Amino acid sequence: MSDIKYLPGKEPHENEHRLIFKNVDRQGWDTSIDTYLEDGGYEMLKKGLGMDPKAVTEDVKASGLRGRGGAGFPTGIKWGFIPPNNTKPVYLICNCDESEPGTFKDRYIVHQDPHQLIEGMVISAYAVSAHTAYIYIREEFPEAAITLEKAIAEAREKGFLGQNIQDSGFDLEIYVHRGAAAYICGEETGLIESLEGKRPYPRIKPPYFPAAMGLYMAPTIVNNVESLCHVVHILRMGGQEYVKLGTPRNSGTRILCVSGDVKKPGYFEVEVGKVTFRELLYDMCGGPKDGRKFKAVIPGGSSSKILRCNESFKIGRGDDAKDLSFWDLPLDFDTLAAAGSMAGSGGVIVMDDSRRMSWVLNNITHFYAHESCGQCTPCREGSTWMKKVSDRIENGQAVPEDVKTLEEIAYQIDGKTVCAFGEASAWPVEAMIDKFREELVGETSDTNDFKTDERIAQEEFLSKVQ
Amino acid sequence: MRPLKFPLTDFFKVSSKIEVPHPRAIDRKRLEYIRLYAPVKVDVPNARLIERDALRYLFKDHPKPRRNDRELVKRDLPEPSVLEKNVLSPETPGSINFPPFKITPELEKKANQRIAQYPADQSRSAVLPLLHEVQHHFGFISPESIDWVADKLNIAPIKVVEVVTFYPGFRQKAPGKLHFRVCRTLSCAMGGSYELMARLCEITGIDRSGADGQKDPISVSPCGNYSVEYAECLASCGTAPVCLVNDDFHEGLTPDKAKDLIAQYNG
Ligand SMILES: Cc1cc2nc3c(=O)[nH]c(=O)nc-3n(C[C@H](O)[C@H](O)[C@H](O)COP(=O)(O)O)c2cc1C
Ligand code: SF4
Ligand code: FES
To answer: What pTM, to 2 d.p., does this model score?
Structure first.
């Protein structure tokens, strides 16, 4: 791979291990199928279609690949959930609704390397016996939707899609379906509802697990773009070889997207768990901006719990337990979960000491209040309340009890909703208050007597009643 | 003020016959009402705009609505229903940029292509793609186009309305010729996207004070050439702040680049 040259200024860092992003920012690279074929593309498709579908699934299971969309669920096991006696058509959906704040990896795959995704999708569809696949792409990627449709047409022309692909007897059609700027369409059951032409109200699980009752009530596999691309590399390397990348239970590579207050933000494809925060933020991202110090980091998209840079954590159980400072934490699924946060979608947002936490909190609560689908009360009302209270704190109109109120609201959303959006909106608030309580309380004042419109109306009403 | 293209005297006749409410109280429904009673047939392109100008002109020395006007409006016109309120598209200065909704063979062809992507008994899935086609050609989703989509897919219009009103990606009023969607989420906000928005508004003369993130996110400049809106994370946080201009994506837009960004399109 050493002969690959990258665009000047975009060369990968030496700690990187590029599989998925091999062709991103590559010199002389474009999205046409000829370029991809010249580079040995679609070979794995031929190999995969020559195997037994079960063998492909087994390989993916052996590779230990965990979904890169947020939940980190093992992909091979998910594929195995399709009921064995199923008679309905099976659907494969690629989740390209990348809208978790802080995440920007799928963007580069679909804009710069669409054929890798298509190849991964054909192999995955073959493994789960799906003959129709959809790419659900967010509306804000209009260019990528065109690129993908062009790539699909090219692939069909060369016989990598359509009827009887490469004489294997396997048929597959892939269609692009554009969303319409709603974050909740990223949630897999919300996505399915949206694909059915409805409002994206997530379905309750159980019983609506997509693998059993998904699109049109037929078995459906929803996978993230990055997860599907990994399938190509698993087939190339073999599951047994792939599992050696990364650390045990956290195999493979993953793309970390760093944004915020660092000198060189960007994307880095690394072996999972091989890079610590110190290496990531100081070596790869060039450290804090001049004259600043790192204050806090959101490790896996805005839904994950924030970590303070001066914390330390007890990781592991029993005799294996060790104390690790924030800087020595490796970025893998299990360690971050043990540290009380999550690896999520790989979006690392960094804040330095110039940021007021109340402002950050306010920005995040606005996002969730805007994006709640409104189906269940705790989330719909709670996210709006959190926004209003955090508005007050940010504007200096709050009293100290408001911080407690905010915390109470968050804990009342968490775990009481139809979909995981409830946790996604409550966790950042819970963590922010837990870790920066003094700072938030410091922005409030006992003497504030700010009243909301609702409060004024309520008092007026009560005075009339009495 | 744009010169008027038809004799105003006709309009004065109208106003002497029925009392025309103050422009502030005028929405589409009421314009239709006036048109119904108008002794002249206003048969020019963009008739609605001209009517609006005419009304503005009529009431230029008349800054506050008179009480009678409001009462007249109340008495004679039923309050628009929830459905009407959600379906009707208010006029904006940007309306002039887009042709009125019309079913063309080309649109039909594209629609049929989209419908073919889904199983035959699941054509409802094509609601989003069809609405995208409409929005792409006509700038926004009008009541007529909702009817067309519902007809095409053989579903009740409400099923289309619920989709249009839910998704922030569908507009119900005309944006400007250049529609800016500035990302306001954390990484971009840290990079200065709020200042970028302020600069864009300053340059284009847009007043965002009436904008409401949920119900009415789009603000259009008085000239109708520009409109702005806040978007949530556009998935390019590493190159913050970012912004979509129509379908073009721009990254690394520090506030000082706002002027160049606009110039790029006007040059
Ligand atoms: C509120 C919410 C938003 C989500 N957004 C996305 C998203 O934008 N992209 C994505 O791939 N997965 C998203 N997910 C995760 C999906 O539900 C699902 O777990 C994922 O697509 C499965 O793919 P994977 O197994 O390959 O990770 C979201 C989940 C929730 C609860
Ligand atoms: S938790 Fe929120 S986003 Fe999820 S279904 Fe309920 S209201 Fe909708
Ligand atoms: S925060 Fe603006 S693109 Fe993600």
So the answer is: 0.87
Cis peptide before A206 (omega within 30 of 0): yes
Give the sign of the dihedral formed by CA A371, CA A300, CA A307, CA B231.
Answer: negative
pLDDT in tens, A241-259: 999 998 888 899 999 999 9
- Beta bridge partner(s), residue A247: A250
In this prediction, what percent of chain B has a pLDDT beyond 70? Answer: 69
Note whether A425 and A413 are within 8 A (CB): yes
Task: Check CB contact under 8 Å for A102 and B187.
Answer: yes
Going from the C-alpha of B193 to that of each of A257, A388, B208, the distances in angstroms are 19, 22, 15
The pLDDT tens digits for B164-201 are 999 999 999 899 999 999 999 999 999 999 999 999 99
Domains of chain B plus CATH, in order, are: 96-166 (1.10.10), 178-266 (3.40.30.10)
Cα B36 to Cα B56: distance, rounded to the nearest angstrom: 19
Cα of A392 vs centre of ligand 2, distance in Å, is 24
Q: What tokens were used for A154? A: 């090219």
A244: contact with B, CB 8 A cutoff = no
Q: Which residues of A touch B129 (CB under 8 A)?
A: 177-178
pLDDT tens string A53-100:
999 999 999 999 999 988 889 999 999 999 989 999 999 999 999 999
φ/ψ bin of A162: left (φ > 0), alpha (ψ from -120 to 50), beta (otherwise): left
Q: Which residue has the tokens 């396997």?
A: A170
Q: Which domains does chain A have, with CATH numbers?
A: 31-244 (3.40.50.11540), 255-352 (3.10.20.600), 357-442 (1.20.1440.230)
* Number of Cβ within a 10 Å radius of residue A319: 6
Cβ(A357) to ligand 2 under 6 A?
no
